[in-house]
Amino acid sequence: MTPIIITDPASGSSARILPELGFNCYQFRAMIDGQCIDVIDSHPEFQHGDQRPSSSGIPILFPFPNRIADAHYKWEGVSYDLPADKTYHDQTGNAIHGFCLDLPWRVIAQEETYAIAQFQLSIDGKHRLNYWPGDIFIEVKYEVKGATLRADFRIGNPGSTSVPWGLGTHPYFKVPLSEKGSLKNCLIESPATEEWILDQCLPIGVKKSIPQAHDLREGAWLDQLNVDDVLSGMPEGTEQYECLIMDQQAGLLVSQDYDSLFSELVVFTPAQRNCVCLEPYTCVTNAINLMSADAETGLRVLPPGSEIKTWIEIRAGKVIV
């Protein structure tokens, strides 16, 4: 596979994207005062297609993020059973991570600093179209500017019926942030005040106040965390949220700012890897099966002919003392 390379000539920052594998941005190297910060983690073989599509870089999870219980759901009285494909199932038989992270996307524009690609079910995933209530597309623009990687998303419904949808990204952030850093000196922060109660990675439809062990509002040391949690309860009255990683020993940080449309945040510490996943979601795991729950799931419905836009920014910088 041949990656797309986008570069900001003024700063020297660059990113690599695989359009043939879900338009996955599997490398982002931010330049700060001549120092290169390797922000995104990926397996060395990932760019050759030799790893699970969700295991590296920034997988794009669409039209649903995370899991759908038992790979089954109902929508407007119609039952849907999702394909029994190991790429799209976890070890307990739940469908996972949507339809577009392992398929080629169509690149529709590319310049030195940015690239834009689209995925539409009826065009790029025809064999999966029958597994969703209607046609839907996603367009992503990745752009590098300074020490920032920005993703602009456009989601549209080209069909004649309303379609449910959810979007998530699954970035693997490298830790520590330099050879001078260490895992025990890396702190992660998030403003979430609640978490979903889970049963085998699936929400039961109830939230609770975030326990002290998972509370990231004042920061938590990464070497003391072993989590795969769905956080919620983001601050009200704001148009965007921020989560971050701070490597105090190296004096560096990576922040992830995102539109308040992303109401949930999955925090995942992969086993035996020097990375952490901070995953913004527009809806909770298994949202399509939680429609009767009292809690707001974030699942959205797109009317025919309509579209919606949102964004995420990943920025590297120095810790200001």
What does this structure look like?
With 321 residues, the protein is an all-beta fold. It has one helix spanning 121-124, and strands at 4-7, 14-18, 24-32, 35-38, 60-61, 67-68, 72-75, 78-81, 95-96, 106-110, 114-120, 137-145, 148-156, 163-165, 168-169, 172-174, 186-189, 194-199, 202-209, 220-221, 228-232, 240-247, 252-259, 264-268, 275-281, 300-302, 307-318. Helices cover 1% and strands 44% of the residues. Strands 10-11-12-13-27-23-22-17-20 form a nine-stranded antiparallel β-sheet. Strands 16-25-24-21-18-19 form a six-stranded antiparallel β-sheet, with no helix packed on it. Strand 18 and strand 19 (202-209) form a beta hairpin. The longest helix has 4 residues, at 121-124. The chain is globular and about 55 Å long. The N and C termini lie far apart (43 Å).
Topology:
Layout: E1 4-7, E2 14-18, E3 24-32, E4 35-38, E5 60-61, E6 67-68, E7 72-75, E8 78-81, E9 95-96, E10 106-110, E11 114-120, H1 121-124, E12 137-145, E13 148-156, E14 163-165, E15 168-169, E16 172-174, E17 186-189, E18 194-199, E19 202-209, E20 220-221, E21 228-232, E22 240-247, E23 252-259, E24 264-268, E25 275-281, E26 300-302, E27 307-318
Antiparallel strand pairs: 1-2, 2-3, 3-4, 5-15, 6-9, 7-8, 10-11, 11-12, 12-13, 13-27, 14-26, 16-25, 17-20, 17-22, 18-19, 18-21, 21-24, 22-23, 23-27, 24-25
